[in-house]
Amino acid sequence: MQALKMGSLLSVSQGSKQPAKLVIIKYMPIKKKQPIVLVGKGITFDTGGISLKPSPNMDEMKYDMSGAGSVIGQNQSSMKECLAIIEEILEEPELNKVYKGKVVKIVEFGAFVNILPGKDGLLHISEISDERTENVSDVLEEDQEIDVKLIGFDRGKMKLSIKALSDKSD
Questions:
Q1: Residue among 93, 118, 114 nearest 105 (CA)
Q2: What is the pLDDT of residues 135-147, one digit of tens each?
């Protein structure tokens, strides 16, 4: 790396007990194979970086504010698709925002709805309809896609509502 005049990389590595390493990745395409995308950790200026991990742990990346991420792909469209997935994973739920969610589990007191990758909220039975709901499974089923509004947080857990979607001023 010295011969390649990579002084910045070498100086960053001085904070580590391990010697600096430069990895060069060459993609050798095999015909009739799906395009691939490589996602990796970039340079960090500390020794406590968090590696990119497969879901559901990929959202831990947002806590590593000093690092960089790299996306290398065979073509522009596969890289853009990968970046969109990463951005979705890093998205933080917003209060009063409407989400298209998927019912992941029905329980006696409501349903758990996935609104973002790795982020489920509770749709309480009282928030399903303006009318009284006796049995959640009469109204919802698992894997059903529904629109819900994030109406609050209770001890870090998301509270969702279908009822809040209707305009009560009609």
A1: 114
A2: 999 999 999 999 9
Q: Which domains does the chain have, with CATH numbers?
A: 7-90 (no CATH), 98-165 (2.40.50.140)
Cβ–Cβ under 8 Å, residues 43 and 12: yes
Closest-CA residue to 113 (of 132, 141, 153, 82): 141
pTM equals: 0.57
The SS3 assignment for 157 reads strand
Among the listed residues 85, 150, 82, 83, the one whose alpha carbon sits nearest the alpha carbon of residue 118: 85
Phi and psi dihedrals of 132, rounded to 5? Answer: -65, 130
Contact 112, 79 (CB under 8 A): no
Helix/strand/coil for 146 = strand
Rounded to an integer, what distance in angstroms lies between the CA atom of residue 66 and that of residue 51? 12
Instruction: State how far the Cα of 109 lies from the Cα of 91, in Å rounded to an integer.
Output: 28
| DSSP 8-state class, residue 101 | E
